[in-house]
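To the wet lab folks,

You asked to see what we're planning to order before we commit. Fair enough. Below is the target structure as C-alpha cells, and below that is the sequence we designed to fit it. If anything looks off to you, flag it before the synthesis order goes out.
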C-alpha cells in the first residue's frame, strides 16, 4: 500500500499535475462550489409558496429576530434543504466511487440495483399503508438486501470482476423493476401517486437529515486517505497490483461505502436520477481526474445541484410540487448529451 501511495504522490497536485489541474484553479473551483451550495441553501429557505423575508431567514438561523414565518423555515424548509443538500452530495460521491470501481463512465449510484431494492421495500410499505418511518426503514432494508444479493451472486465461488458485478447488478435491477411494475398495477389508485412520487424523487418527507449529513462527513473522512490509491486503481488492475495495491480490499471498500451512501440517499429522497451520473463528469472537466480533489468537489457540486432542483420543484408550479427527480432529469439529459457531443471520445 505504501508503494502505491508513493507512486501516486510522484505526480504533485502543485503547479501542474498530470492527473489534475494547477493548485490555484482547484482551490478556486472548490471555493466556488462551496459558495454555490451556500447560495442554493439560503435560497431554499427563502423561496416558497409562503413569503419569507431575508430577516426571517436570518432569524430562523439564529442570526437575528424573526417573526412567525421563521418557524415555517425552521420546521419545514430547513430540514428539507439540509436533506436535499446531504443527499445530493451522497449521490454524487457514490457516483464517483462507482465510476472508479467499474471503470465505466456511465456508472451511477443506481447501476447495481440498489435503487431497485429500495423501491421494492418502500413501495411495498406504501401499498400496505404503513407510516412514513416504516417506509424509510423498508427502503433502507430493501437497498441493503439488493446490495448483499448483488455482491453474493457476482462473487459466486471465486473473486468477482467489475464486468460480472455490473451484469449481476443489471439483472437484479431488472427483477426489482418487474416487482415495482407489479405493485403499481395491483395497488389502489389512492396510493399510486405517492408511489410514483417516490420513484421519481421527492424530498418533501425528508424530516431527519442528520443521519445523511453524518454519513457524508464520515464517508469523505474514510475515502480521502485512499484517494491516491484510487488514482492508481483507475489505471488498471495490473498497474495497481504491480505497485503493491491490495485491489480486492480496495474494491470491497468502494462497493460497500458507495452502496451505503446510495441506500441512505434513496431512503431520504427517493430515486433521484442523473445527479450521480452527470456531476462527476462536470467536475472532472474542471478539475481533471485526481480523486484527491474530485471526490470533495463532486460532493459539493451534487449538494448544490439537488438543493437548487428541489427549490425549483417547490416553486415553479406552486402550490403544486413537482418530483425533484423530474427536474434533475430535465437538467441532466441535455447536459449529458452536450458533454457527449463536446467530448465524443
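Sequence we intend to order:
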Amino acid at each position: 500500500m505504501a508503494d502505491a501511495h508513493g507512486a501516486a504522490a510522484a505526480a504533485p497536485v502543485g503547479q501542474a499535475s498530470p492527473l489534475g489541474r494547477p493548485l490555484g484553479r482547484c482551490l478556486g473551483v472548490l471555493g466556488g462550489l462551496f459558495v454555490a451550495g451556500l447560495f442554493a441553501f439560503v435560497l431554499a429557505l427563502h423561496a416558497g409558496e409562503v413569503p419569507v423575508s431575508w430577516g426571517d431567514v436570518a432569524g430562523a438561523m439564529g442570526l437575528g429576530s424573526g417573526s412567525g414565518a421563521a418557524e415555517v423555515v425552521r420546521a419545514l424548509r430547513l430540514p428539507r434543504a439540509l436533506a436535499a443538500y446531504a443527499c445530493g452530495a451522497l449521490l454524487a460521491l457514490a457516483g464517483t466511487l462507482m465510476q472508479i470501481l467499474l471503470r465505466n463512465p456511465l456508472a451511477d449510484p443506481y447501476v447495481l440495483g440498489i435503487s431497485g431494492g429500495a423501491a421494492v421495500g418502500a413501495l411495498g410499505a406504501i401499498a400496505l399503508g404503513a407510516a412514513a418511518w416504516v417506509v424509510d426503514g423498508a427502503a433502507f432494508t430493501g437497498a441493503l438486501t439488493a446490495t448483499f444479493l448483488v455482491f453474493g451472486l457476482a462473487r459466486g465461488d471465486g473473486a468477482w470482476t467489475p464486468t460480472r458485478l455490473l451484469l449481476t447488478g443489471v439483472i437484479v435491477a431488472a427483477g426489482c423493476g418487474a416487482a415495482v411494475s407489479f405493485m403499481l398495477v395491483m395497488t389502489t389508485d389512492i396510493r399510486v401517486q405517492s408511489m410514483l412520487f417516490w420513484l421519481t424523487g421527492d424530498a418533501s418527507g425528508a424530516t431527519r437529515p442528520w443521519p445523511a449529513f453524518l454519513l457524508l462527513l464520515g464517508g469523505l473522512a474514510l475515502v480521502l486517505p485512499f484517494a491516491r490509491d484510487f488514482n492508481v486503481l483507475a489505471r488498471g488492475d495490473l498497474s495497481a497490483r504491480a505497485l503493491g495495491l491490495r485491489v480486492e480490499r480496495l474494491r470491497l471498500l468502494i462497493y460497500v461505502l458507495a452502496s451505503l451512501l446510495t441506500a441512505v440517499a434513496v431512503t431520504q429522497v427517493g430515486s433521484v436520477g442523473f445527479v450521480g451520473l452527470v456531476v462527476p463528469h462536470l467536475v472532472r472537466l474542471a478539475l481533471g481526474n485526481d480523486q484527491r480533489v474530485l471526490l470533495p468537489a463532486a460532493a459539493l457540486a451534487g449538494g448544490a445541484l439537488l438543493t437548487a432542483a428541489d427549490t425549483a420543484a417547490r416553486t415553479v408550479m406552486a402550490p403544486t410540487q413537482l418530483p425533484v427527480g423530474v427536474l434533475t432529469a430535465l437538467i441532466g439529459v441535455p447536459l449529458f448529451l452536450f458533454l457527449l457531443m463536446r467530448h465524443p471520445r
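Structural context that might help your review: The radius of gyration is 21 Å. The chain has a mean pLDDT of 82.

Thanks,
Computational group
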